[in-house]
Specification:
There is one protein chain. By secondary structure, the protein is an alpha/beta fold. The chain has 4 domains: about 180 residues, FAD/NAD(P)-binding domain (3-Layer(bba) Sandwich), CATH 3.50.50; about 50 residues, no CATH class; about 100 residues, protoporphyrinogen ix oxidase, domain 3 (Orthogonal Bundle), CATH 1.10.3110; about 120 residues, Protoporphyrinogen oxidase, mitochondrial, domain 2 (Polyamine Oxidase, Chain A, domain 2), CATH 3.90.660.20. A 7-stranded mixed beta sheet has the order 7-6-16-17-18-15-19. The longest helix is centred in the last third of the chain and has 17 residues. The protein is globular.
Length: about 525
């Protein structure tokens, strides 16, 4: 760092924090120092390594409609040279590669082209996700459910509900019977809260234009044979995406390497404990390292740490009790994944897609059965064959459970949890426990910011934080918003742009991935969509 160079301290080495550091180094006028509280790069976009196998926590499709984000990914990790773009499913050609040995180009940084195949498992049947209008959907639902779904959808077209909740949001777009079948129970399994208690703005962010009409439009477009423009397709209907050869963590580990190579600083196992403020500006941060606490002066502070942790760390500024209470009570949903190494699965491929050894083609499966706690099942072989140590002879699964820190699932000991997970997958007919080779248990805190409780008063916290001139909140937890990875990156890019331009326009940063004023409150403490 040059003597007169300005310094930006960044809390968190996830997508937002590392993107900010990388962007600062483009102009080399501001020196970035990144402090990561854990010993792993990538936040929830990290790749967990276990005995030569790799786990993608939560499943990360690399897709964006923003050219700047796509250019960033391509700069760090270019698209694969082979197989060709026509060979979308890499496992279809993997044996050919195996004969030749690993492709030297694929040993380095490379993005694979992937086919998104995700289905719903409900009533012991597979359904397309998003719900399609195929014959298999109607036969799986049965005549009675199909008729009710059709009538319910027609009713939703005639009479729209005021969207005070996520339940209203889904019913308006799918009708009540389809909502009851495919959204109600699963949403409560994910969030631990009934959809009637969750904000409609969560749906606006995560599924935006998805509806029966959007699905019909997509079906018609396919049948007419028109070339699909992904920039115009509802994100939930996207069928192709790119993916790092060794999982999402590989990209962020590569960014971290580049940041250090270009002169930036990155410190692991170094949580930010105190943020010192003077005259409405952050002047320094205190970091807890192995050798003890150390204070670092700064000109700017970019925070991707949870708002719940940010507020109590502030010193030198009076924080109103109301702000402390709102931030302290912000809800989060935590996450547990069980990695399961299998000889084989009990279920085989019933689709028209050709797969290696006739394995199921899904990247992930939404488990909507009411008699098990598992929420989603990932098949890592289908994300990238290189995530699996022995691709040809094993199947590497990720069983995903949604919970809250301190609840029964969170407190269950690892051995009991792994046993429960195996028994659940066997119960619904997907595996035989005798085929299990190994298992591992991974916990993730604050994986999902919640859209209930004091979330509806978050606008007050944002106003307070924006009053600290050189403090920028970026990323999913930094903004308490369930953003995709590309949106988290954009918040960082825009923060760096704002600092470089000296405009101090934080409203634009908070507006990333919003279509409504998400933080407006009402008398009944529920979000009213504008």
């Amino acid at each position: 760092m040059e003597k007169d160079q300005r310094c930006a301290i960044i809390a968190g080495a996830g997508p937002a924090g590392l993107t900010a550091a990388y962007e600062f180094l483009r102009n080399n006028n501001i020196h970035p120092i990144v402090f990561e509280s854990s010993d792993e790069i990538g936040g929830i976009s990290k790749t967990v390594k276990y005995k030569g196998n790799r786990m993608d926590i939560g499943g990360h499709r690399f897709f964006s409609k923003n050219e700047r984000v796509k250019d960033f990914w391509d700069e760090i990790m270019p698209l694969q040279a082979k197989p060709s773009q026509d060979d979308i499913l890499l496992q279809n050609t993997f044996k050919e590669f195996a004969k030749e040995g690993p492709d030297p180009e694929l040993e380095n940084r490379v993005m694979l082209i992937r086919q998104r195949i995700s289905r719903i498992f409900y009533l012991r049947h597979f359904f397309d996700y998003p719900i399609s209008l195929k014959l298999s959907t109607f036969t799986g639902m049965g005549l009675s459910n199909t008729v009710n779904a059709g009538l319910g959808y027609c009713s939703s077209l005639i009479s729209k509900r005021e969207e005070n909740s996520l339940e209203d949001f889904y019913i308006n777009r799918f009708g009540k019977p389809l909502y009851k079948m495919f959204f109600e129970d699963y949403t409560e399994k994910v969030w631990g809260v009934h959809p009637s208690k969750l904000g409609a703005d969560w749906g606006s962010q995560r599924v935006k234009g998805l509806s029966v009409f959007a699905i019909l439009k997509d079906v018609i477009s396919k049948n007419l044979g028109g070339k699909k423009d992904n920039s115009q397709v509802e994100t939930s209907l996207i069928e192709q995406f790119v993916y790092p050869k060794l999982g999402p963590g590989q990209l962020w580990e590569s960014v971290a390497d580049d940041v250090k190579e270009k002169g930036g600083e990155l410190y692991m196992d170094s949580p930010v404990k105190k943020i010192k403020v003077n005259n409405k500006k952050v002047t320094s941060v205190v970091v807890e390292a192995k050798e003890g606490e150390k204070e670092y002066p700064c000109d700017y502070f970019l925070s991707s740490m949870p708002i719940k942790d940010l507020i109590p760390a502030l010193e030198g500024i009076e924080v109103p009790e109301e702000i402390r209470k709102i931030s302290n009570e912000l809800p989060y949903r935590d996450f547990i994944t069980v990695g399961l190494l299998m000889k084989k699965m009990k279920i085989n491929n019933s689709t028209k897609i050709k797969t290696f050894q006739n394995r199921i083609p899904d990247t992930w499966i939404y488990i909507q059965e009411r008699d098990v706690k598992i929420g989603r099942l990932q098949v890592f072989n289908n994300w990238s064959p290189y995530l699996v140590n022995d691709y040809e002879n094993t199947i590497w699964l990720g069983l995903e459970y949604f919970c809250t820190e301190g609840d029964e699932m969170w407190e269950m000991d690892e051995a009991s949890f792994r046993k429960m997970a195996i028994e659940e997958l066997e119960k619904i007919g997907m595996i035989d426990s005798a085929d299990v080779l190994d298992s591992v248990h991974v916990k993730i805190k604050k994986a999902y910011p919640g859209y209930h409780g004091t979330y509806y008063q978050l606008d007050k916290v944002i106003e307070f934080l924006n009053g600290i001139d050189n403090l920028y909140c970026i990323g999913r937890n930094g903004q308490h918003r369930y953003n995709n990875m590309d949106h988290s990156m954009l918040t960082a890019m825009m923060a760096v742009d704002d600092i470089n331009a000296g405009t101090n326009n934080k409203e634009e940063i908070w507006s990333v991935n919003t279509e409504n004023d998400y933080h407006e409150t009402s008398d009944n403490n529920k979000k009213q969509n504008s």
